[in-house]
Design a protein that fits this description.
With 972 residues, the chain is mainly beta. The chain is built from 15 helices and 42 strands. Residues 1-39 and 43-57 have low confidence and may be disordered.
């Protein structure tokens, strides 16, 4: 197959082919930095030392000043390409989530809550408070929040990943409060590189495959270089039903098998005089609710994934010291989520007493509950049409799981491209410039199947015979809601669930940036290095739009879909100017081998959020050779994104397994009864049930009145490279980040407590209580989103977030005689991670705790240690990952069993062996989770749905088990 046809098959179109071939003659420039001679995670010092040895100018992540001797005042951790290769992963998210300092976010281990993308969440400050770059340039975001999808990052040509752990807003603009993740690709690549990777779990599932082909060449006597890389990846699911820990849903409170009240046979809620009842297994009577639905087996621990990607770049020296460059990236990936069977989740259904599937026993019970006499019930049972004598209906909140249809599937197909072009060179011998523009687009198309539509459900139960519906709708098939599991026929399902719904989110980002940087040509009287500077401007424009079909836009129409997806569109732009200075003050003096001051400022003019100013001040001091002390202080801002500004009100689902109004409590508390009544539950006092599946309704929306949030960040630390221990580097850095006027929503529990924590006679009239709206058919906090708005979670600038801790990095190499030793350690101790939604809300601490308020787990201590022995043609490498013990949040209102309140510390070991077959080929074998460590058992509903799944936290702890991976690499 020729290259053109191959690329057409990979992309499904010839357009990306033209772009990538065009890159071969539209070159790209970037300065090369050799990979540090280290096999793991290291610091920027190794990169800087390498550049200093070669005499090359580099731009260090975290500053735009170009200087081979620059030691940044903010710490930068470096993840080498060799470390990424040893991890044997398929996407950037898979290795970032295991790096200390990063908190697992939406990714391959998130099923319910995954929107087809994966994100980075350094420091746990949120995926929207960091910037992800590719070779120093922003990447087109994946959705309304302006967040980059890590699934699109090309790994085949990756040279290293820099993570600037201090705020970098002055250098890169808004969103960089928690830092910057910069993926840096290999430059001037010449040759052919082929990589094939395959893996599978010990249980025989979760197979994955990855293939990459990279071709590069120099041309025109070395004045230019071009490279093209194409790749394919595929990953299979791992079902929770295939792991011992997750075969059954375990209730965290009772410790017994639990699940969802939306079950099979049907459950009815709020029936007068009966409350919560269920059809018995024979379909002959209503009995007290007895059998929740175990949704675990149909859910998954690992999402299926498929990706095609193309990456190309080129550079060409058009004149002495002037180079033009271009870069292009195309990615098409598909993420699938698989969730338990759809159903009717507390929908109010109007059903004739003459429904053909009502048994005599069930009909009699409904007749009694709804006040019909025996004669009225008998007449209603035979009434064939609404005009027939005695025709009657009843309306009931209905829960029935359509197990006969199998699971629900959501397929998210993302098509993303980005192009970059520019020119860079020297103005003088010590001053250079770089001007580039980028443009990228991302389109995410969601297609859902297996859900069913509420309008069809209402048609299908409105029937008095088994062949036709009373509603005059073509192809309507009456539905049996009153039989046991298995009683819904394929014909009934075909009408109810035989429809696919869809929605599309499109985003774009255009950037133009120009920088002049270098050496001002003079220096301090006490220093030999000149004053470095960078000055420039940047323009960015974001657009985003989300459109859906009519069913997806209609609240409650797509059964089990949670929130509706109304159309959203918005855009904003920002114009910025920035300046940075690096002033070497003293060098080569007693106690002052070097003393350097860093200053910077950026002014940003947003067309919607107004003008803001950020600045930084920092420096480094080397009192003696081998010891550098560094620190930086930043004043930063973040502007609201398109989702925060323009999203319309939407009612969706949260996580909470209790309700103050549930059960008998309101019957003995007048103030509580008054509040529950004011919220719409008065008719059901004493019979209100807890939220179905632990998922109460919440209502959120954007806010055009949002202002920028502000942050203060500072770091101080030291880098030690002692001469008495050659090839040892140790860095220790303290960080402190405080975000005020934070754009946040209150936690569900905080908002509930605002009403129920201190009840008085006046509470029933308070806004905090009346803003909560209950299901009019059951009084519950869960129910149809079209009528049950639940708990409001408004966006505001009232939040405050703060975190602090210490990062440690150690790198050591030594010749042991029989082998070479490489040792790397990266660790993080988190002192605090607090979130306060408003002045009167709880200042909630989440370090070392888990609950529905803390989402993904953030341990106090976390280490990643890799030791490698190199025997020449082979090496053996062991990775040890340590996660500190955590416990249930003391301030959370839940009451889990004691055995679920603590998670012990965890250690994972991955073993990797690499063999060089010859000068052109090597094979790597890996065993991940070498000891087959099982994840901790926490039960269900103890945490947020996205992260607490399958009775554990699969994003933090390995729920898949021992895995085997083999990689073959050919290089010519």
């Amino acid at each position: 197959m020729n290259n053109a046809n191959l690329l057409r098959r990979l992309t499904g179109s010839a357009a990306p082919l033209a772009v990538c071939l065009g890159l071969m003659s539209a070159p790209a420039f970037a300065q090369a930095v050799s990979t540090p001679a280290n096999t793991g995670t290291t610091t920027s010092a190794a990169v800087q030392d390498e550049a200093e040895a070669t005499g090359e100018d580099i731009v260090v992540t975290g500053t735009l000043v170009r200087n081979p001797n620059l030691v940044a005042s903010s710490p930068v951790n470096v993840i080498t390409a060799e470390e990424v290769d040893r991890r044997q992963v398929g996407t950037a998210e898979e290795f970032l989530r295991d790096i200390p300092g990063f908190i697992p976010s939406i990714g391959s281990a998130v099923n319910n809550g995954n929107g087809g993308a994966s994100f980075a969440n350094p420091r746990g400050l949120g995926t929207n408070r960091n910037v992800v770059l590719l070779d120093g340039a922003r990447i087109a975001p994946a959705g309304l929040a302006g967040v980059v999808n890590l699934d699109n990052i090309p790994l085949a040509l990756l040279e290293r990943v820099d993570y600037s752990t201090g705020s970098a807003v002055t250098t890169y603009g808004a969103d960089a409060i928690a830092g910057v993740v910069n993926f840096i690709t290999r430059r001037d690549f010449a040759g052919v590189d082929i990589g094939l990777q395959s893996g599978i779990t010990e249980r025989g599932d979760g197979a994955n495959f990855r293939a990459d082909l990279s071709v590069g060449a120099n041309f025109d006597d070395g004045r230019g270089n071009a490279v093209l890389s194409i790749g394919y990846q595929q990953r299979d699911p791992v079902y929770q039903g295939n792991r011992d820990i997750s075969q059954f849903n375990i209730d965290s409170t009772s410790g017994l098998p639990g699940g969802s009240a939306t079950a099979a046979p049907s459950v009815f809620n709020g029936v007068p005089g009966l409350g919560l009842v269920q059809v018995n297994p024979t379909g002959s009577a209503l009995v007290p609710y007895y059998s929740p639905f175990n949704f675990n087996p149909q859910n998954i621990f690992q999402t299926p994934f498929e990706r095609y990607n193309i990456f190309g770049q080129a550079n060409y020296e058009v004149a002495d010291n002037i180079e033009v460059y271009a870069q292009g990236m195309f990615s098409k990936n598909r993420v699938s989520t698989i969730i338990a069977s759809s159903g009717t989740f507390s929908n109010g259904l109007t059903i004739p007493f003459s429904n053909p599937y009502l048994s005599a026993g069930i009909r009699s019970q409904f007749c009694t509950a709804y006040g019909l006499t025996a004669d009225q019930c008998a007449a209603a049972a035979t009434a064939a049409t609404p005009t027939s004598p005695g025709y009657r209906t009843f309306t009931v909140s209905t829960l029935r799981r359509f197990v006969e249809a199998g699971p629900r599937f959501s397929e998210y197909t993302t098509t993303m491209f980005q192009y970059k072009g520019g020119v860079r060179g020297d103005i003088t011998s010590n001053i250079g410039f770089d001007i580039f523009a980028t443009y990228g687009e991302s389109e995410n198309v969601q297609r859902q199947s297996g859900n069913g539509l509420l309008s069809r459900l209402r048609n299908a139960v409105n029937a008095t015979n088994v062949n036709t519906c009373l509603t005059d709708v073509a192809n309507c098939v009456p539905l049996n809601l009153f039989g046991p599991s298995g009683s819904i026929t394929p014909e009934q399902l075909s009408y109810l669930t035989g429809v696919t719904t869809s929605g599309t989110t499109q985003t774009s980002l255009a950037t133009v940036r120009g920088v002049v940087n270098g050496d001002l040509g003079f220096s301090s009287p006490l220093a030999s290095e000149g004053v470095g500077f960078a000055i420039g401007g940047e323009y960015r424009k974001y657009t985003a739009a989300s459109v859906s079909d009519l069913a997806t836009q209609t609240p409650g129409e797509v059964l089990g879909n949670g929130a509706a997806s109304p159309d959203v569109t918005g855009e904003y732009d920002v114009k910025e100017a920035f300046v940075e200075l690096v002033l070497p003050l003293i060098s080569d003096r007693t106690l002052f081998q070097s003393l350097t001051l860093e200053l910077g400022g950026r002014v940003s003019d947003y067309n919607l959020a107004g003008t803001s100013f950020t600045w930084k001040a920092g420096g480094s001091w080397e009192p003696i050779n081998g010891l550098r002390i560094r620190g930086a202080y930043n004043r930063a801002t973040r502007a609201p994104n398109i989702g925060e500004l323009f999203s319309p009100p939407v009612t969706g689902l949260s996580s909470f397994s209790s309700d103050p109004c549930a059960g008998a409590a309101p019957l003995s508390n007048a103030n509580l009864a008054a509040v529950c009544t004011a919220q719409g539950g008065g008719a059901f006092l004493g019979r209100i049930t807890v939220p179905v599946a632990g998922q109460p309704n919440v209502t959120t929306s954007g806010n055009l009145n949002l202002d920028v949030e502000k942050a203060t960040t500072w770091t101080v630390g030291a880098v030690l490279t002692p001469s008495f221990v050659p090839d040892l580097t140790v860095s220790v850095d303290y960080y402190n980040i405080v975000v005020t006027d934070a754009i946040t929503t209150p936690s569900f529990e905080d908002q509930l407590n605002a009403c129920f924590a201190n009840l008085t006679a006046a509470s029933a009239a308070s806004a905090a209580c009346t803003g909560i709206r209950r299901d009019p058919l059951s009084g519950a906090l869960s129910g149809p989103v079209a009528t049950t708005f639940g708990v409001p979670l408004p966006l505001s600038n009232l939040g405050r977030i703060e975190t602090s801790g210490i990062d440690l990095a150690i790198n050591y190499t030594r010749d042991l005689g029989f082998a070479g030793l490489n040792l790397s350690v990266i660790g993080t101790w988190v002192d605090k991670q607090r979130f306060q939604a408003g002045p009167n809300a709880i200042n909630r601490e989440c370090v070392g705790f888990y609950s529905i308020n803390c989402e993904s787990i953030q341990p106090e201590w976390q280490f990643s240690t890799r030791g490698t022995l190199n025997f020449g043609g082979a090496d053996v490498s062991l990775l040890w990952r340590f996660i500190d013990a955590v416990q249930y949040e003391p301030l959370a209102s839940g009451n889990p069993q004691q055995r679920f309140r603590n998670i012990d510390s965890f250690s994972y070991f991955d073993l990797t062996t690499r063999f060089e077959l010859n000068d052109f080929a090597n094979i790597t074998f890996g065993v991940q989770n070498l000891l087959d460590k099982e994840p901790p058992l926490t039960g269900a509903l103890i945490g947020a749905t996205a992260y607490n799944s399958g009775n554990t936290y699969p994003s933090t702890y390995d729920a898949i088990g021992r895995r085997f991976v083999a990689t073959t690499r050919l290089s010519f």
